Amino acid sequence: MANDLHVYDKPPEGANADWTIPQNWDAFTAAEHKMWDRLFARQSEMLPGRAADAFLRGLDVLKLSKPGIPDYCELNQRLMRATGWQVVAVPGLVPDEVFFDHLANRRFPAGNFIRQPEQLDYLQEPDVFHDVFGHVPMLADPVFADYMVAYGKGGLRSLGFDALDHLARLYWYTVEFGLIQQADGLRIYGAGIVSSYGESIFALEDNSPNRIKFDLLRVMRTRYRIDDFQQNYFVIGSLDELLRTTAETDFAPLYGQLEHLPDIAIADILDDDKLLHRGTQAYALNKA
Ligand code: PHE
Ligand code: FE
């Protein structure tokens, strides 16, 4: 969301007023379905012991009657039964207001293309593998499903506060790149991580990135990068905690405070951070 790659200002030719398009499942080629299966097999094999319990439970929703890119008719029946959510196809990134409105109504907009073989490991624009494999399992969890609805409503509300950048960071550091502390260890649940082989290992096991206990205001002040592995990950204690500290908090006073607080540079550590791991930043420094 909210990155400015391929954002149009009105629905393109053939799209509905809410920017959705028919999934047109039959139009995917055999090679595209194979690409899904290859990515699916690789991730499902490496995620046990790394992904959050909620994600691994939700993965079952994606095990459909035929292989390949999920047919949304079948997928949505299962997802609707679990949490009332559905997946809708969109041509690419949609404007913020449209995106928030879909979330507020339990519709997750998914890109309708799949990456090319040379983009196996990193792409900046969400494809159907990221959007569906990465996001749908967590949407099958009742608590996370409610968080995403609250986020959509909060997004619509934020438009009246000029607070979009701050709210986008919350999405980034939870929905896309969140870590969770389970009783049996640290786990990943962010869609940007679980849909990436390299980042699934990096986020948990590499010494480079900071791992910091989640703090709402701190997160909303922290810059992020969209071009490579993250330099910070924020760790929630539980999905209930995430829902409580966001949905049950009125953000209006926070937005007021944030206007006067400086952004936090990407790898900076603050005195009152609760650090689980102080990153060496070796990975980012090596590339610079
Ligand atoms: N409670 C927030 C508000 O008052 C909305 C929100 C909920 C934002 C959940 C993010 C996640 O605006
Ligand atoms: Fe995403």
Report on the structure:
- The chain is an alpha/beta fold.
- It has one domain: Phenylalanine Hydroxylase, CATH 1.10.800.
- The chain is built from 13 helices and seven strands.
- The protein has a five-stranded mixed sheet. A two-stranded parallel sheet has the order 1-2.
- A hairpin with a 2-residue loop joins strand 3 (179-182) and strand 4.
- Helix 4 (96-104) packs antiparallel against helix 6.
- The longest helix has 17 residues, at 30-46.
- The protein is globular, with a radius of gyration of 18 Å.
- 38% of the residues are buried.
- The chain binds phenylalanine and fe (iii) ion.
- Phenylalanine binds next to helix 6 and helix 11.
- Its cofactor is Fe(2+).
- It comes from Sphingorhabdus arenilitoris.
- This is Phenylalanine-4-hydroxylase.
- It is an enzyme of class 1 (oxidoreductase).
- InterPro entries: ArAA_hydroxylase (IPR001273), ArAA_hydroxylase_Fe/CU_BS (IPR018301), ArAA_hydroxylase_sf (IPR036951), Aro-AA_hydroxylase_C_sf (IPR036329), Aromatic-AA_hydroxylase_C (IPR019774), Phe-4-hydroxylase_mono (IPR005960).
